[in-house]
């Protein structure tokens, strides 16, 4: 009986999500190409979902973004959503560690028609961030790379932003179950989880930020941390 109710609720949630996606966040060929290219090159399938992509666009529009910075490009899926929110004279820089990923990103951006307004910088994000000071301030910053470094990325996001900029970090909800488990067992918390927990704490307490966690993935177990710079 309980199983049946869970199944019904899951089906209902999936139908609601499919309806919202179809109405407000349909994928075109460019976005689908990026997903397919990721698959073909054996990259992990860890992209944001279409509703999250549309939400990124909404945030970009809300702060009238002309300069966007993304940390962690993978195959360009989230980058396409973001770049498409830019005006004609806008620009997006995306940072990617893996040169193989970066190649796929460039192909995806070309397919999606956003090659001209985007730039892929290859290497560890921490190496590129200092050189971006003279290219800022960025109106929107999307953090989605190695989770252990999120607190450092926040530090740089604050340096690279202006009053009214929006800073979004993916995967900031998933750290809580690990925390609760380890609290019971008094064990070690891995570096990724620690990075995410610290990021949430820093954004919550920062006097220069107004922040909120949104459990906005498929099953409410992960989602965005969203901060507006005051
Ligand atoms: N934003 C993407 C998903 C990113 S997955 C999307 O939603 O479509 C995380 C990416 O961050 C991977 O491609 C990984 O190679 C990259 N990454 C990991 N560590 C990094 C680092 N130190 N600097 C830059 N990119 C990094
Ligand atoms: C995973 C998901 C992500 O969105 C990400 O940025 C990194 C890893 C994952 O599910 O493993
Ligand atoms: Mg992510």
Can you summarize this structure?
This protein is an alpha/beta fold. The chain has helices at residues 2-24, 29-40, 50-62, 77-83, 99-111, 125-128, 150-159, 175-185, 191-205, and strands spanning 67-71, 91-96, 118-122, 138-143, 161-169, 209-214, 224-229.
Commentary on this structure:
This protein has 230 residues and is an alpha/beta fold. The mean pLDDT is 96. The protein has a 7-stranded mixed beta sheet, sandwiched between helices. β1, α4 and β2 form a beta-alpha-beta unit. The protein binds S-adenosyl-L-homocysteine, 3,4-dihydroxybenzoic acid and magnesium ion (MG).
Task: Kindly provide the radius of gyration, computed on alpha-carbon positions and rounded to a whole number of angstroms.
Answer: 18 Å
Low-confidence stretches: none
What is the strand arrangement across the widest sheet?
3-2-1-4-5-7-6
Q: Overall 3D geometry? A: globular
Specify the structural class. Answer: alpha/beta
Helix/strand order: HHHEHEHEHEHEHHEE
What is the percent of helical residues? 40-55%
Largest sheet: 7 strands, mixed
Attached small molecules: S-adenosyl-L-homocysteine, 3,4-dihydroxybenzoic acid, magnesium ion
- Terminal CA distance reads 50 Å
Strand content: 15-25%
Number of strands: 7
Mean pLDDT: 96
- What is the number of helices? 9
């Amino acid at each position: 009986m309980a199983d049946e109710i869970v199944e019904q609720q899951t089906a209902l949630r999936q139908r609601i999500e499919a309806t919202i996606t179809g109405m407000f966040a349909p994928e075109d060929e460019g976005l689908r190409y990026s997903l397919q290219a990721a698959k073909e090159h054996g990259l992990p399938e860890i992209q944001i979902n279409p509703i999250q992509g549309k939400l990124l666009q909404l945030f970009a529009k809300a702060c009238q973004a002309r300069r966007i910075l993304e940390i962690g490009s993978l195959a360009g899926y989230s980058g396409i959503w973001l770049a498409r929110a830019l005006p004609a004279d806008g620009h997006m820089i995306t940072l990617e560690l893996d040169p193989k990923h970066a190649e796929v990103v460039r192909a995806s951006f070309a397919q999606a028609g956003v090659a001209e307004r985007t730039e892929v910088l290859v290497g560890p994000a921490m190496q590129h961030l200092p050189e971006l000071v003279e290219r800022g301030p960025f109106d929107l910053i999307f953090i989605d790379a190695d989770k252990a470094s999120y607190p450092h990325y926040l530090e740089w996001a604050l340096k690279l932003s202006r009053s009214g900029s929006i800073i979004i970090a993916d995967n900031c909800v998933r750290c809580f179950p690990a925390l609760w488990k380890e609290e019971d067992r008094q064990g070690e918390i891995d570096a990724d989880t620690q990075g995410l927990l610290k990021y949430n704490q820093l954004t919550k307490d920062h006097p220069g930020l107004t922040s909120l966690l949104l459990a906005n993935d498929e099953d409410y177990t992960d989602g965005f941390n969203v901060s507006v710079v005051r």
